[in-house]
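[Automated response] Your request has been received and processed.

Submitted sequence:
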Amino acid sequence: MPQRHEPTPTLAPPFRVKQVRDTRSFVEDGDRWVPVPGSGDVRECDRCGRTHEIHAEVVDAAGRAAVVGVGCMNATVAEQRRLSGKATRDARKAARERARAAARAEFDAHTRAVAAMVFPHDQVRRQPADWGGKPAEEWRVQDAGPVIVSEWADHEERMAVLTSNWRQRRMEERVGGPDTLRALERRAGTYDGG
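Generated structure:
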């Protein structure tokens, strides 16, 4: 709870604005980031005594530093809107970047864990398959999607695809399914739309 104090009526306008900050938290709501009322650093205005979550750090005509609400910084309404709007945009952008960094760290941790898993080469099942009327093999391992291998195929490349399919399934298991993985990839900025 902020300490209550009396306003300082001796602050002498005009004020030089050093910085305006929106201290509220922002949450993602669909495709928008919205402020959470009451989540900011509630601070009493040094000029009027009311509490504000959007603060302006100012220096008065006598050189005294103060923290005031946007309405008390002795600026035009247009200037108040411009400065508070910029502060809100900056806070929203910072919240988005923090969320993306957290999602990226989570995604990278899962990726490292899956990369450390040993692919079960001894469990690869091979069975005959038809590839457009030509003889081929279907390779499978556990629950990974099958890979068709023609007699002309590059076996190393086909094994790499099978391994990739297997690792994709392990990743989906770790995060809770394919939809959850896609959502994490979108939040982390790694989703390629595939």
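Summary generated for your ticket: The chain has a mean pLDDT of 88. The CA atoms of residues 126 and 147 lie 10 Å apart.
If you did not submit this request, please reply to this message.
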